[in-house]
Each structure stands twice: as C-alpha cells, then as structure tokens.
Amino acid sequence: MSRDAVVVPGATLGAEWVDDVLLAGPDDEVCFRLPDPIDRLNLRRLVLGRQTELAQSGFRPGGAVALRLPPSMAFVTHLLAIWRGGGQAILLDHRLTDYEVRRAIERLVPQVVVSPERPVQSGLRTFVEVDTDLASYSGHPAGTSHAVVQLSSGSTGPSKVIGRTADDLVTEVLRYTQIDGVPQRGERLILLPSMVHVLGLVGGLLYGLHAGVELQPPARLTGDAIVQAIGAATTPATVLGVPFHIGLLASVQDPPWLPQFKRMTTGGELVQAAVSRAFEEKYGVPLGNMYGMTEVGVIGTDLYGAHRPAIRPAPGISVRVVDGELQVARAESPYLGLSDPTRWSDGWLHTRDAGVVDSQTGLVSIKGRLDSQVSVGGLKVDLTEVEAALSSLRGVEAAVVAFDGAITAYVQLNQPRSLVDLEAELAQQLATYKRPRSVHLLNQLPRTTTGKLVRDVSTLRKAVS
Amino acid sequence: MTLTPPPPGRAEILTWLAGLGPRPPDAERLDSMELAWLVHQVEQQYGVALDDDQLERMSTIDDAVAVLAEVLTSHV
Predict the structure, then answer these.
(1) Average pLDDT of B27-52?
(2) Lower CB count within 10 Å: N or C terminus of chain B?
(3) How many CB pairs under 8 A join A and B?
(4) Ranges for the Carrier domain (chain B) (predicted)?
(5) Does the domain at residues A169-317 carry the CATH identifier 3.40.50.12780?
C-alpha cells in the first residue's frame, strides 16, 4: 500500500496510523470470514477504492463523512478510507430515523454522507451486503480534529455528541492488547454487537484488525447460527456480545461439543446470575464481562468471570468515586461543542453510574444509573429524549416516560388525538429501539402538590388502572 | 415416531417472551430483540428457520401467531 501519509489538520497523529496500527500484516492473513475469507491484501485494495470514490464525491483531508450504514464490508472499508484520507467519520446508527439523521447532519456538516443505495432488508443478519450511495454535502472542513464522532441518545444540548481522536483510538486498541483473556493472533472473534457502537467498533473491529484476529459474524442472530459460527473452524473462538446473546446460547438445546469455544465476553449491562450459571454449565467456558462507555471505550474487565459482578480497571485507566458516582480520568473533554461540567470537569469524566471502588483490591462494582439512561438490548436510550419527542407532538399537554422492564409512556392530551396517530408521528422522530413499548393516554397525569409530574412507576400504573 | 408439537398460540408466545424478562402486559408490538428471540425459540423447538419475508410480517404478537401457524402447519 502506498505510504502517501495524509496530514490531518489539527491532529497530532497523521493518517498513517491506519496503515501502521490496523492494516499492517501479512497479505494472506484473513481479517474477515463472511463466511468467504477476506485477507489483508484484499482489504487494502477495497479501502483504496473507497478513498477514490470518497474523493470524487468531495471528501478532502480534514473533512467529515457521515456513515449511515448497517454493519457491512461497506461500513468497514468506508470507515478505514475516511481515516486513511485524513478525515473524520461520523457514525450514525442505520436504525435512526430520517429526522434524527437530518438533525445530526445539520449540526456536524459532513462533506459526504454514505447511505445504502436502497432499503436494506437485514432480517436477523448481523452483517449485511450493501451497495452504497455517496451524497455530496458541504465543502466545509470538520469542526474538530476527532477521528470518530458518535451521538449519544438525545442529540441536542451539551455533551451529547462524542468525539475521539486517532490517538485515543490507538491508545484503546493497545490497551486491549494488555488485557489478559482477549483473543490472540490466528484466533477468531464471533462478533455480535454492531460495529457502529464502541464495543463492536474498538473491541471487535479495530482490535481484531490490529491483533490479527479473524472477525466472523454469524449468518443470523440465533443460537444455532452462533453455535455454527463457533464450530465453522478449529481455531479458538471468542464470542463478543451483550447479555441477550448469552440467553440465546444458554437456551440452545443439545449444542455440539465445541472444543474451540474459548470464551464469551459481554458488555452493556449486568448479567443475571442464573443466566450466567446456565451458560457456563452448558459450554464449560468462562463468561467474561466488560464495562465501558462511548466516551472512553473499555474502562474495566473481568474476562475470566472471577470477580463477577465487579470489574478490574483496564490498564492505563484511573477511576475514582465522588459522591457515589464513578469517574474516569480523561485529560480532555470528549464532547463536541459546549461541555456540561456535570459530564466532564477538571480531567474527570462523570460516568453517571453509581459505583464503589474496593480500597483493598481496586475492583470496581457498578450499582446502576444515576440518571435517566436505560439499556435496550445493549443500546443506550435516554428517557428524557423520548419524553421530549413525545411532548413536542401536536396535542400533547405533558408526557412522562418511565422504564419498568420496557420503555413506557404516559401522556396527557390537550386536544383529541388517536393513539395510532401519536405513535405513527413519533415513529418519524425516534428510532424503533427508542420508542415506548406501550403508550397510555390519561385524562390527567399524576402531579405532586406543587404541580410537578410524578415519575414513580407504581403511581403511574395506578393512574392507568 | 416423533410428534411435532402444534404451532404456538398467543399464550405460548407470551411465555417465550417472558423468558427475556418483564414486558408490559399491553405491549402488542414486537421489538427486534423479541423477534430474534422468537425465531430462536422456533428453531430450537421446531427445527424450522424462518426467512426474511416471514420475519417482515411479524411485527405484533398476533402477526407472529398467524405467521407461525402458517409456517409450522405447512412444515408438518
């Protein structure tokens, strides 16, 4: 591959990091099994081709490109091409609505937006084939020198858009190499989480490329398909997923003997003890746990399941607890634009997770959220975003959104509207995974004596009944 | 001889979904995780894989009952 390193405006690391850290290695080393193998030589050729396409569409070093793609080789090759071309990749989950994407594009002014050429019927596939459409937008350079920009749930207000520099991504990739229990060169990673989000992106794609680990998504997101992917080769296989995927594997009836199955590692949320026990009894391999955030990447791990539910801070990560909240050392604010001092201040990122650090062992226990963020199948949803979207709809006087195992909305109207209409309008604004599973229309939402909306779930349920 | 169980009704589907955790009793729409879980259950208990078109038609519990009745009856 040519070494025509691109100078990245404002960044301390030139674009050669993509070649040095991710694409370097023997030409015939397999990077992906889809199930057909894609080796490094082929991957490099694909990336070079994408660089040409992006340049023809108006992408220049220092510019931003928005990727609105499902997990696919198109996503991988465009992402690497953007970075190799000295640009910023804005990652938009393909499940976001047109409304959500439009707002992101207006704020982040990419030079090019890459989308599927036609709607993708992905079924239960975790990795799809897509033809892409490149739309040219602005001629502006990116607003910051971050290599990747991701949106947290709720894309308005301060501290909602997260940026990470190339230095930071490389540091995290190298951090993974120091963690005992991660897959090694020549082994396979059965990748289940989306590469658009931090666990699949850095823990899966970037670490895999760096370390020479083959990335192998299963054909479908079912227990049988995951078992088949593990058994598809004799080389050791680690499954990376979220707790839902443990449930799939734990409930496979009579799985075959899988001596190559080495470990399953999940992130996203705590795993119920009964589920982890059922999994370990069935497969006889360790069930590891990871804890991290979009802003930092991996923060701590317990890859042998030895400290469950606690985790040990990853190498190079410093943590502390202030007023019950876990904080992570972070020299710069990871947020674009205004930084909310309650999210980052004085070199510390406020995780908004309640935590305890054991002074003897250094192990960290996470005790749950301190704000309104919930996890839906590993995807983070801020209930205030759902509430704001509902409240903005015509005819809605007030809305309360709560989580009682699922996102549930309670709505008070000030003019007649059907539930079907409300839900259809909301579907234009919010991605499916963010939408309430049930919406209750009430004549009057419960309020405190001072007029504040009551958020207690049992009171809200009583008001419905 | 192995007897194939009859297609699941609404109550059985709700029991399967309960395996994922608590769910609002009045939630009719299936989310993507529930859909994946149902497909997995059908694979495990009937040995039948559903195709994309069948999945597209399963957006609610009643849809799932109807599609599974059609698929599993023709399978038998």
Answers:
(1) 90
(2) N
(3) 68
(4) 30-67
(5) yes
